[in-house]
Fold this sequence. Notes:
Blueprint: E1 7-12, E2 25-30, H1 36-44, E3 62-67, E4 70-74, H2 85-100, E5 105-113, H3 120-131, E6 136-141, H4 148-161, E7 170-172, H5 181-204
Amino acid sequence: MNYHNVEFERSFGTSDQLPASDMPEIAFAGRSNVGKSSMINKLFNRKQLARVSAVPGKTATINFFHADGIRFADLPGYGYAKVSKSEKRRWGELIEGYFSQERDLRLVFQLIDMRHAPSADDLMMINFLIDHEVPFVLILTKKDKLTAKAQKERLRKFQTELPCAGQITMIPFSSQTGDGIEDVKEIIAEIEQDCAEEALYEDQEEPEWVNEPENE
């Protein structure tokens, strides 16, 4: 994938505004202020592709980008306490509405802060993905804030703090140093390859009438 080809599409504030899914999608999810926008900007090497806010909870829309035939969905951050209950309900409806639609969703990059145990909201989101059999990879952000020893300790603790931890791919990540970005790109490349093979197979399939015997 040429990450320089990324283009911003649109932002949507309610699930009924979301466009139909017409290409494979990869979504980014995580708690407010977990570093989701910073990760997206690092991935595409753009400073302002995803807006980084100093005010947690400010992003309240689903933002769509696309590059080389794959759409990326930046889901609104969850779990910020200092917003109204009505706004929290709208965010919840937006996220749930996205996942309830028939979308060609290939993977969710679920972000959690590596420095801390997963929050109740993190666990709720992870369990939702597991229960609904949505494939996901955990991105452990803010790796650079921990010493190497502390990183190992947190990785050890995640094994008991997270459901099905032994079956989850975890990528320690830093938007400051770029650590982990190549692992993320490798996963995206695998998805891109799978999509290309599916498209090739579909092109090669012959219509049913090709091998039908002629009527005498």
